[in-house]
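Researcher: Please translate sequence to structure tokens.
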Amino acid sequence: MMVLIGKTNIDFISKRFVFFAVSAVLIAVGVISLAVKGLNLGLDFTGGTLLQVQFEAPVTTAQVRASMSKAGLETAIQSFTGRNAYQLRVKGSQDNVNEVADKMLAGFAASFPGNKFTEEKRDYVGPVVGRDLAKKALFAVVLSLFGIIVYVAFRFSNPVWGAAGVVSLMHDVFIAMAALSVTNREIDLVVVAALLTIAGYSINDTIVIFDRMRENMRMFPKMHLGKLINTSVNETLSRTLLTNLTVLTVVAVLFFMGGEVINNFAFTMLIGSICGTYSTIAIATPLVYQWEGKGK
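Model: Translation complete:
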């Protein structure tokens, strides 16, 4: 396997309280932002106005988006290939459908004065994710977290390891959500998919280090837990950094060059990837050390 860095001997465990403090600050900022600003839920969760128009002369998606921005509207845009038509959705209530649609049409008239357009459809679309589905999704997430604890506890014969892995996972997902709240980015089903991807990515990286810890426990049964954890993390550090830098490179390209449509997804993955790398080393394994009763 390719080696990114040479052999290291970093004492991560001795710095665990610094790591915990950094995470505590980030979580506190997230809690404040969520309490004050909340989450900017997208059309998939709120419902809103749907307008479909066809232009006489060609226009680009970027021009349509710029037109709606000038009109003060945040719009989800879908184009129809070969028809020069666009379907636009703006979140809002059912009571102001006509008001929002008229504002959109006025924006087009102002931005494309020489380009005639025809309104093909005007309607209200309900939220894709209703209350019942949201409750079921939340139940599924809680059940999956419990399943992870059981799996890791069974695999490593220690429920503490499973609990530490889940705390690390929840740490990453929460900070990603906090970043979305702080930056007021819209949350839709694509962003939810990114949050679930972060959860899977985080626990996978943690299990790799836990595997090395288990191997070292078998080879060095009398080694102090703190030293064993440091040894295991250092032995897998090159693999962790190499894997995570590969992921970070991809999501960074998507974030900076992927365009407006996937920007929120890429931003969520970018924050989650950074947190996943950090939490695997600075949260999961130090928590095992603390909770095993040898954290003094």
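Researcher: Any highlights?
Model: The chain has a mean pLDDT of 86.
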